[in-house]
Amino acid sequence: MSDRRSVLEDQKQNSQEKFYIPQCTSDGRYHRVQCYSGYCWCVYQDTGKPIPGTSSKNRTPNCNPVPTPSRPIKANTK
């Protein structure tokens, strides 16, 4: 949490520099919905990685249930 506060303070002082700072829960996981500059998207709470296909502009996406990562289908080469 202190890292986040430090970055937010730096951003206030250098207002011309804008960058995304993830929202986290008190236990250190990522909030399921992340938003920045009008866009919101779902993330995996353990990794913070965006869930493909969940980004939306000017609205909060429905992240329940969390989509499971798809695995590529291997072609049968025999």
From TrEMBL:
<keyword id="KW-0677">Repeat</keyword>
<protein>
    <submittedName>
        <fullName>SPARC-related modular calcium-binding protein 1</fullName>
    </submittedName>
</protein>
<dbReference type="GO" id="GO:0030198">
    <property type="term" value="P:extracellular matrix organization"/>
</dbReference>
<dbReference type="InterPro" id="IPR036857">
    <property type="entry name" value="Thyroglobulin_1_sf"/>
</dbReference>
<dbReference type="GO" id="GO:0005604">
    <property type="term" value="C:basement membrane"/>
</dbReference>
<dbReference type="InterPro" id="IPR000716">
    <property type="entry name" value="Thyroglobulin_1"/>
</dbReference>
<dbReference type="Pfam" id="PF00086">
    <property type="entry name" value="Thyroglobulin_1"/>
</dbReference>
<keyword id="KW-0732">Signal</keyword>
<feature type="domain" description="Thyroglobulin type-1">
    <location>
        <begin position="1"/>
        <end position="63"/>
    </location>
</feature>
<keyword id="KW-0964">Secreted</keyword>
<dbReference type="GO" id="GO:0005615">
    <property type="term" value="C:extracellular space"/>
</dbReference>
<dbReference type="InterPro" id="IPR051950">
    <property type="entry name" value="Dev_reg/Prot_inhib"/>
</dbReference>
<feature type="compositionally biased region" description="Polar residues">
    <location>
        <begin position="53"/>
        <end position="63"/>
    </location>
</feature>
<dbReference type="GO" id="GO:0008201">
    <property type="term" value="F:heparin binding"/>
</dbReference>
<dbReference type="GO" id="GO:0050840">
    <property type="term" value="F:extracellular matrix binding"/>
</dbReference>
<feature type="region of interest" description="Disordered">
    <location>
        <begin position="49"/>
        <end position="78"/>
    </location>
</feature>
<keyword id="KW-1015">Disulfide bond</keyword>
<keyword id="KW-0325">Glycoprotein</keyword>
